[in-house]
Amino acid sequence: MTKDMVEQGSFSSKDYHNPPPAAFIDAKELTMRSFYRAVIAEFIATLLFLYITVSTIIGYKSQINKGDDLCVGVSVLGIACAFGGMIFVLVYCTTNISGGHINPAVTFGLLLARKVSLPRAIMFMVAQCLGAIYGVALVKAFYKTYYDTYGGGANELAHGYNTGIGLGAEILGTFVLVYTVFAAIDPKRNARDSHVPVCTRLLPHSVQFSNPFNIQF
């Protein structure tokens, strides 16, 4: 505290550094090898995320359809752990390569905040969507019968809840996710790097999959 104060009692300097806004269009990025490494990292991370999580949901649906004991196999808590645990690992592995977005909503939010350039944001979102498609395609290829039987692991609204409530739940969950990302990367926070995977992913997914709106898988 004392080093940030002058004798008159006013602040002389900040104890953090705000990075300058990213260029809206940076053509030089397209010639950098690190740019394409980041795009590939987003593709692979999203592919793995969808493959593991959709497989877990299909396994859960298969379990409850057979009438097995829910305490023995995968449960709703197990699904939450699969989502939170996978995204924790993937963000930890890709943060220093691409920033660990693994979600178009996060990338779009960072674009609006001038944290990434437009070409990077577009390429990231394309890579994320393609990774998601290929991840689910692998699930369908390996577990075709289960995939077709249980609707590809898609979740659905519980009885008594309409589409508007489901939409509101998705909007709220996405807001919490993006808000937490920005809170975790705030330059005013100290020693934030080691906590980014936990703050940005584990908490939002735990909230989402605790079923606050009774959205069933």
UniProtKB/TrEMBL annotation:
Pfam families: MIP. InterPro entries: Aquaporin-like (IPR023271), Aquaporin_transptr (IPR034294), MIP (IPR000425), MIP_CS (IPR022357). GO terms for molecular function: water channel activity. It is found in: Membrane. Keywords: Membrane, Transmembrane, Transmembrane helix, Transport. The chain crosses the membrane at residues 38-60, 72-93, 121-143, 163-185. GO terms for cellular component: plasma membrane. It is a multi-pass membrane protein. Its main location: membrane. The keyword Ribosomal protein does not apply. Belongs to the MIP/aquaporin (TC 1.A.8) family. This is Major intrinsic protein. The lineage of its organism: Eukaryota, Viridiplantae, Streptophyta, Embryophyta, Tracheophyta.
